[in-house]
């Protein structure tokens, strides 16, 4: 810039000035005779100055925006705020991107979107803040209008999306049912049936055919059948020989994926796209139709059964039947729409979370064979304590509930998998009155809050320098499993919204994992890409392609010797 200025303002020699003046006069004179056109050379100097001023301003803006990254976590650009960084994060691994920012900012930062949008929120992974939000000031941090609106089309007024009295009514009813002896017995019986008469035959068939399988898909089928049996009293037969296509499952996954896009899109834009039926909103609308078809059929079938056989109403233990027997505040039976919302929410809770957690668990085991050896040693030791340890094809080993309960190392490994790859990677709240976090962050009424559960598992301040390692031993004290605070390990939420199905989820995952590992070595196909998918639950984006190798008796005996 300096060199250019010196060039255009270089002093002229006195002798040359008269010549220059004469030439300029001649040029102007000839220019006037040619039609009064002024030479553009006269404007060259101002144009260069304007360009240099523009470049200088641009450089200043860039430097100023980048400087704010140290203080605010991300560059803050005029008008668009932090949006460019968000777009860049969406193009790679969104969860790792958020984790990196939170680590740099000591666990909390404020995301500032474009000034003309509502893409503004506080993001935290600080356990002190999370306990404050989920327990201490629970009433100040409901799901909120923004969250409910974004999920309304899919989840409606179901337990995951509801607040206040609607949420309390559903939770109380579900809690009573979940803790009943009849329901607990039904969970163990249905799981045994599904694992030994559907899951294991499907896996054995793949071994006989030397075929690779998508284990995530198979586990999703298993948990879908399981939750439908428990929550609705129906058996969709999703996990059957030949693995039939289930339209609902495809629609449900597509709907959760399309819904999450709303959280990174300005509200006015996604609402306009919904109105015009464009882009992801078109996909969401089509997917929800598929979800509704399944839910409507389940509800109609159950109503018909209860009408024809009213005596069975009290004998049934599924949640749908229980809610059908209840009344709302006006003393009326719950509407068809409300029952539909209950169905969809419990499918989300019971199908996706456990199956996704197991998928990441088997992937981690493939990368950590020493952990797998320790799990097998524990399983073989527990099986070896039986008096009737001899099994064969006609009488296969079936783990008993009391045996599953004693599998401490397996539960530690599953918890460690959930710490690193939580089924719900982020969750949302909204502030209904001005407040201050324990870390000093000021949050104003109306602020949207995101607590990053995935990022918590990667914080050295929470889990130590080995936080990114798969280390089940961190959950053990004297070889016994010890649970962590719900505000340090938030995979099952915490406070009044603590997951009702936590105990069943652990039992389900332990029973399934032990039944598979006792019989097969699960090996992930070489070079198969394993990355998280951006959705409400953290699916593995391309599924989990695996090959199974059958274990023989000599291998199991070796593991039994190791355990002793």
TrEMBL record:
Q: Could you name the Gene Ontology cellular component terms for this entry? A: membrane
Q: What is this protein called?
A: Cytochrome P450
Name the needed cofactors. heme
The record's annotation in PROSITE patterns points to: CYTOCHROME_P450
Q: List positions binding heme.
A: 499
- GO molecular function annotation: heme binding; iron ion binding; monooxygenase activity; oxidoreductase activity, acting on paired donors, with incorporation or reduction of molecular oxygen
Q: Which family does it belong to?
A: Belongs to the cytochrome P450 family.
Q: How does it sit in the membrane?
A: Single-pass membrane protein
Q: Where in the cell is it found?
A: Membrane
Q: What SUPFAM superfamilies has UniProt attached to this entry?
A: Cytochrome P450
Record has Heme as a keyword: yes
Write down the InterPro entries for this protein, in alphabetical order: Cyt_P450 (IPR001128), Cyt_P450_CS (IPR017972), Cyt_P450_E_grp-I (IPR002401), Cyt_P450_sf (IPR036396)
**Organism in which the protein naturally occurs:** Escallonia herrerae
- Say yes or no: keyword Iron present: yes
Record's keyword terms, sorted: Heme, Iron, Membrane, Metal-binding, Monooxygenase, Oxidoreductase, Transmembrane, Transmembrane helix
Gene Ontology terms: biological process: lipid metabolic process
Task: State which residue ranges cross the membrane.
Answer: 48-66
